[in-house]
Structures are given as C-alpha cells and as structure tokens.
Amino acid sequence: MAQWVRREDERLLTGKGRYVADIDVPGCLDAAFVRSEVAHGLLQAVDCTAARDVPGVVGAWSAADLPDLPRVPYTLLAGLSTEDAVAGREWPALVKDRVRYPGEALAVVLGEDRYRAEDGAAEVTSTIDPLPAVVTPSAALDDCVRLFDGLSNIALRGESGEPIDPSVWQDAAAVVEARYRQQLLMPSPMECRTILAVPEGDRLTVWSGHQMPHRLRRELAALLGWPTDRIRVVVPDTGGAFGSKSAAFPEFVVVAHLAVKLGRPVRWIEDRLESMLVATRGRGQDQTVRLAADAEGRLLAYELTIDADIGAYPHLGAGLPMQTAWMATGAYTTPRVHATLRSVLTNTMVTYPYRGAGRPEAAIAIERTMDLLARRLGLDPIELRRRNFIPLDAFPYETPTGRRYDSGNYAAALDLALETLGYEKWRAEQARRREDPDALPLGIGVSCYVERSGGEPGGLHEFGSLEVHEDGTVTARCGAAPSGQGHETVFPALVAKALGIPEAQVRLVEGDTDEQPEGLGSFASRSAQVAGAMLQHAATLLIDEARTRAAELWDLPVDEVQWADGTVHAAHDGSAATSLGDLVKTTGPLRVEDRYAAGMAFPFGAHAAVTEVDPDLGTVNVLRLVAVDDCGVVLNPTMVHGQAFGSAVQGIGQALYEGMTFHDDGVPHLASGFLDYLLPTFTEIPPIDIRDTRTPSPTTPLGAKGAGESGCIGTPAAIVNAVADALRIADPDLLQMPLTPDSVWRAARASRHQEGVR
Amino acid sequence: MKITLTVNGAEHALDVEPRRLLADVLRDDLRLTGTHLGCEHGICGACTVLMDGEAVRACLVLAVQCDGSSVRTVEGLTGPDGEPHPLQRAFSAEHALQCGFCTPGFLMAAAGALEADPDLADNPEAIAAVVGSNICRCTGYEPIRRAITRAAQEQRETTV
C-alpha cells in the first residue's frame, strides 16, 4: 500500500472504482425521462402509446398512468424551512397538470438499455399550453405570474437580528449602499446523479451516489409506505457532490416506484445535458445592502435584504437564505445587523445547497461592501477590516444575527494572507502602473470570511461504532458518506492514532445502511468535525471497555489497568498485559457504538487576489491568489489542502465564469452544454497559494472545524474587489458576477463616464 | 455490424449497432467500466481513451469507427506484472485525484502525450495543454499538472 497515498487511490487509478453506473445487475432496465421544453405551462395531454411499441421498450408512463406515484418528499431539515412554505405547493414526481420548470419530467420510459429507453422517449408526445415564465425573483415578486394558483410566489419570509433605527443611518459619518446578484450556479460534479433500485424479496436495495444514505432510505421508505428496514441504501464510489446529492429527487421517486411495481431492477443514470437542465442549482440571490460607519471607520450598522430565487417548488432551498441571514454579520463587531429575506418561487429547477450553501452569499455581500466603505472613507480596505475584526479575546462571540462563533483569529489569517501575497509590493506595482499610461490597471482585493460548519441544531450529531476482531484489527463504522474526501484513509488514521495501533489495523465501513443502521451523512463540511469527533469519542469508549474487561479478568480495580499502544496492562508492575485481539479471544466480541453530538463551528480565513484588467477587452487576468483558511485542527494536511485548492477554483468559477442565463421564454441557454456554461479549466487557473492557520474549535475534543467550502466562500469577493480596485469603480452595482469580458468592459466604460461627469 | 476491436491487447469480435458509442461498447459490452462518461458531448474528457495511440473522446467516437483499431483504456495502463504505470503512482503521490471520476480520462490523455513525446518533461506548455483538455471539478488541476510532470520526468530518467 506504500505506493498509494490514499486507500482509495489504487482502485480509482486502475479503473476498478465502482460508481453506480458501473454496477452490472442482470435484467436491469434503464429509465429515460421525457422532459418539458417549456418553462411554464398547462399540461393538456401526454401520449405514451407509440413509445410502448418501440422495440426494447418495457413500459412508458405519464403521471396519469401512475395514479399511485408518490410526490417528491419535501424536507424541513435543520429548521431551515417551514410547513407553511410547502403547504399547497406539492411537487409531483411526474408533471400532473402544470409544468413549472424547464425539463420537468412529463413521462418516463423504461428500456432494456438507455438507447432503447431514449428511442421510446422520442415517441412520447405532449401538449402544453405555455404560460409566461418568471425566472428571477424580481420578475416573480409581484405575483403577476403565479406558479401556484391562489398562492403567492413568496414561499417564505425570514429575518435575523433586529431592525435598525433610522437615526443610525442619519447620524453615521458614512453610509454606503449596493445591490449584488448572486447568480445561479450549477454544482456540476463530474458524475451526474445516479440511482439503481433492485427489488430482492420484500426488500429494495438502492444504490446511489449520495451524501445522505440514511435520509434517502427514510424518504424512500416513507413514500413506499414501508418500514425503513426493508430498504437498504448503498453509496458506492461517488463522483463528487458539492452539496447537490442529498435529496430524493423526482427521478428517484419514479425509479423506486417502478422497480417495486414491476419487481425488476431499474436505474437512472443522469446524462450531462439532462443534469444541466434539471439538476439543482446553487446561490440565486438578489441582495441589497447598507453599511454605516463613524468617521474613524468603526462599523455602526449593516443591513442585508435578500430576495432569493428558490426555483419552482419550495424545498430545502426555501430556507437556505436563512443561512445567509444568520451569517450576515461576517467577521466584524458591527453592533447592529439586520437581515431580511423573501424566498421567491421562479420557473427554474429548485435551488439547493451548492458548496458553501448560503455562506458565500453572506461573505460576498459583506466583503464587497467593506471595500466600498473603505473607498468612501478613503481608508485602506485592510485597515478598515483590522479596525473592526472581532478580537481574539471576544470568543465565543454572539453575533447580532444569532450565531455564537466558537473561536477565531481573523487578524492572524489576514496577516498571513498579506505576507504570503506580498501586499506592499503589489500596492507599489499598482501605483507604478497608475503612472504608466501603457500599463494595464492592476487591483488587489481581499475577502475575510467566517462561515459555519457541522450543520444546524438538531443535525450536529453522527452515529458510529468500533468493532474489534480476534486478529486485533478494528472496523470503524459511521454514517458519513464521502464523494471524494478520502474518508477511507483519514478516519482509520484518526482511530489508529487514538488507539495507538498501526493504521493498517483499522478499516472503515461507510455508506451502507445495513452496515450502519443510523447516520446523518456528509454535508455542511461536517465529516471531519462531527464524524471525526464521534470516532475519536468511540475510541475512548473502546479503551474504557477494554480496561474494564481486563480489570475483571485480572481481578484488579479499573484504575489500576492502563491503556497504551493498543494493549491493556496492569499499572503497578506491568506484569499482566494483553493485546486487543487477545482480549476479544478471551472475553468475547467487543463492539462500542454511540451517537455523538458536536457544536456548530465557525471556520474562517482571508483570501487575497491580484488582478490585471484590460479595460478595452474586458478581460480579467488573475495574477495571484492567496487563500488562508482556518478549519481548526487538521486531520490530514494533504487532503485539506487539496480540497481548499479545488474549492478556490470553484470560487474563481463563480467570480469570473459560471452562471445560468435564460431565453425570454425561461428556458436556459444550454444548447451547447459545457460550451455554454463555463467551468474553469486549467487554462484559467492562476498561481494559487494555500496556507492555513489553526485555531481549534472548543466544541469537541478533536477540535476540527469543517474544511472544503472555504474557497467558494472566500475567493469570489477577493477577485471582484480586486477588479473593482483595478478599475477604481465607485458604483459596485456595475460589477455583477460572473465578471465576463462583456460585463467588465461595460463597467469600465461606465466608470470612466462617471468620472468624466464628476 | 460486425467489428473487431483490440482492447488493451485482447482482440474482441463484436456485433454492435452502428449508433453505439465506443464508450458504451467498452463499458457495457466489454465491462470495462473504468472509462467514465462525464458529459457525453466531448467537452469534459472523462471518457478519453487511446485509439491507435491517439487520445480520443470515447463519447464522440462510434464503436464501428474503431473496427480494426487498437484501443487502450485505463484498465490497460497497469503493467502485465501488475506494476502500476508511472502516471498512476504520480497521481497518487501528488494527490491529483479526489472523487476519481475524471481521473481515467486525464490518465489516458497524459499517457498518450507521454508515449508520443519522450521529452514531455521539457515541455511545460505541452503538459499544460494536456491538463487543459479535460475538466476536473475537485482538484483545481494544479496537482494533475504536477503529477504528469513527475511521471514525465521519471520517464525521461529511465529512458536516458
């Protein structure tokens, strides 16, 4: 194994990985969905007759053909949404009478393979009377076009903090205002969504690339009306998730229903164009901000107003903007912070967590506004931040928006970022270029973020166990479900260290609800923080149990039995000693299990970017990016570094390249797939330095906070601030992500024009 | 349509529908599931395999176009004695994979480049072009660049 850095690597590098689409089940049928080509409309008819005559097609169904088809389960997870938001707004798994987003499934065809299924899907006909489509919150807000008759498009209103007295704004030395668009993004894991449902006796085994196998089991059991133990969910290798693979999607409902109905294995392997049309989107907020400070640059008040685009049905995305509201305060001691939100239904596929999930929207808003305020006050943006950071001795810190930050050292992260970047050197270069008419303008931007990891109250725990075998090896089980984070390597190392035994003696079992009966999963950057802490806790239980057994065996008081390096021994003279394996041989099976709850943790960091902008071409060249992240105690520096790097690149994607755009009829511009929706490639990657500071979380003995979402949260504002700095743009509304050449060119021209007018 | 396909040195006589993609024939007919489909429109490169030594997108090639050709997939990278290919070792050493879904495509694109140019290590731009030809959503690419460079350097050292 020495030649492989991770235990996962050998199989993934030799073609022996096993993703859902790789699993060969004899007689398995492939599902293909017939999708609406309109964004909004009344469904008059679906005719599957011709499809059923296509060779190799086993069946074709519309909603009318499947009266027992359950609806898509909604979720009130983590208190992020409410019953009111979903009441009367049922999400049918196949369209019943009204299409509410482009690509919504009208029918399903099962074939002997995907080719046959698609042959059949091509023969399904439908009649839809189009309705006007609304694809932005601003278009949907006035309820001129309603998605649900008789119900407002506003599915949820929320707030954090207290309303700010008008006198605060009136009396402040400086007040800045801005509007920001957090564009809709596609999470785009390289493996699209997958489900394979295999009926076996009175049980159903479901294979899926998924972040929350136990939730999927629970939701599928509920919709089938089965006890959960009749369903086994297995998560094999999963090709990325980034928040987008934790629900029971409409297609999953249909596949599970048909597998049970037909008593045959059925799978749906989403293809990319399908995914681009109907996979969940992230972000999607229109924000208005107001920030006030006194003459010395001390922040007085901050107000954030959010109109969130939550898509066509209220799901988890309805409540996600609350995350933004709770995190609105950022890294500063602002005494008054108030965030309000409206979650607005639009004719798009639902908004859902995407790496960062509500925190990037908060960090980008406050961090862009800090630069705006610095410009207004004539202060260096670094100095403005330093004057307002929550100081080291103020933790735990209660924010006005209801968060209790566990620990932080924001100034240290910023110092390291500036030192790594060579801040003064770049400022000098900027000054030089400003004197040189032939030089392209250069800008420096920073973004000091604080985020939340682990989950929300009620979802901060994880389940797991440790089992010792007679040969002394240990099997660790837990409810997490990785999609590339290397759990098989990291968690055995953690357990081995806690027990003082070689890593090779520990193996991890995850992602199988028959192996691990309860679990929460991998989301909200929680696996190291929560599942890691749970496994460390289980190791202490195991040690206690081993000492107790040895004490009984040797007829000694427990406190005279010690644990060291995987063995128990008598404290007084060490004469009696036994290894774990021998202890099991002597005393019988040894297994400890528990539920362990952590607290919310608040990772933070400082990102700094240097950009060069060509005002005539509108191009942005990122010359350097530094990301300093603090996720507390780091379990595996290589893997945390790798995630931070990849996350920063996704942050670059939001800043410069990615974003959904729509035709007037509400259908996305996606005809050319990844040629329309631009993910960063190697060509776009600047020199990136990843550094870390390590401020342990006091909420668990392990001290780890969540890692991996940092770049999506910290990087975008650093880049946008750098572009604004390069172009000296006074009006922040001119720069909306993604900063495409077109938008930058327009901003540069408008900025010059404004300067000319002044 | 009857075709003959040599895959990783083994000859297969196949009867395939003319419309079937090479990727589907490799995955479904030959059960070589190491070749992954990431976009099915030729952009992401996860399905990259070598066809007569040239890197091709297996989602853009029909199996019948490969009649008489020799195809190499990720399953054929490991040496006959089970010894990992230098690229496989380098990808692990540089942490150039996380979820692993795009990895076979990068490996095969890099393998094609390495075999075509023994001095690839001296040509960072050519390495950059290989890395820039595919999409990875986890790593941010730089570890992949380092891994290919490492394998290229190793190749040069062993051939000198």
From TrEMBL, chain B:
Residues 1-77 form the 2Fe-2S ferredoxin-type domain. It comes from the Bacteria. Pfam families: Fer2, Fer2_2. One of its GO terms (molecular function) is metal ion binding. Pathway: Alkaloid degradation; nicotine degradation. Keywords: 2Fe-2S, Iron, Iron-sulfur, Metal-binding, Oxidoreductase. Gene3D superfamilies: 3.10.20.30, [2Fe-2S]-binding domain. This is (2Fe-2S)-binding protein. It comes from Streptomyces colonosanans.
